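REQUEST FORM: STRUCTURE PREDICTION
Request ID: SP-0412
Submitted by: Lab K.M.
Chain count: 1
Length (residues): 305
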Amino acid sequence: MKIGIDLGGSHIAIGVVDKNGRIIEKFEKRLKGIEKKKIKETIVSYIIENVRLLSQKHKITGIGIAIPGTVSNGVIVKSVNLGIKNFNIVEELKKEIDLPIQIRNDAKYAAIAENTYGSLKDYSRSIFLTLGTGIGGAVIINNNLLDCGDLPGCEFGHMIIEKNGKQCNCGKKGCFEEYASMKALKTNLREVLGVGEEVSGKELFEIIRNNVFGDGAKKHQYSEQIDSVVQSFVEDLSIGIANLINIFEPEAVGIGGSFVYFEEVLLDRLKKELLKDNVLFNKRENIIVKTAIFRNDAGIIGATI
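STATUS: Completed
RESULT:
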């Protein structure tokens, strides 16, 4: 068995995965306050602590770590959403862990999991996006990841979709993830509602759901503004996905990250937007968009394949 680790902009998840891609045991930690400020120390100490614990209970043969950002030769070259640059995480972990350790971009690992066992297993050519704090991406061609050389490439989240647009943490303006990440959607919804982060993503989903499917009594007093935020998000998301479809012409599009928890209120709307006459270069009668079967566990599973 192997240990898969998924690092996110706001969490760390660690799981033991068997040879069939099933998670046997999992721990997860939300990152807050001082932990985010001391992100390197937090990540390293949490991984070492839990690898030791899990190694006492299971026969572990290796570790894979899914990282949001650019990685190369065991080094986190740049992770905008973690606030890390040029950090040799493998070297640091090897001081305390005597196991093979591999790292890769998190969206790539998630795509591998979904292509091998999950929602994309019936398609040999697909694109995969992870929507969370940012937007990650991967391209599968003939059941293999697109090889971009020494650097992982496929940084979908940093396509420019708005000239001189919103400032991104990467230093550029108008990046896709500033408009179509789940963080962007939640931030915009909270602004309309006049609330802070104490209102959870689950509560925001219920507010949207009531406005989409509820009767008049359940609709929110800010119903029109909420609908406007959701529609703007879907339009921006469709622009980025349409660009990718026009380039790669995939059989299917996979979406992971916290988008999967909003599938009921977003997915059909997104499909309709993508099928509008002025969006795709090669018009389609139908478009296959699948959410990740493994939800937020796809990175953990993919890291062990």
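NOTES: The chain has a mean pLDDT of 92.
Reviewed by: T.R.
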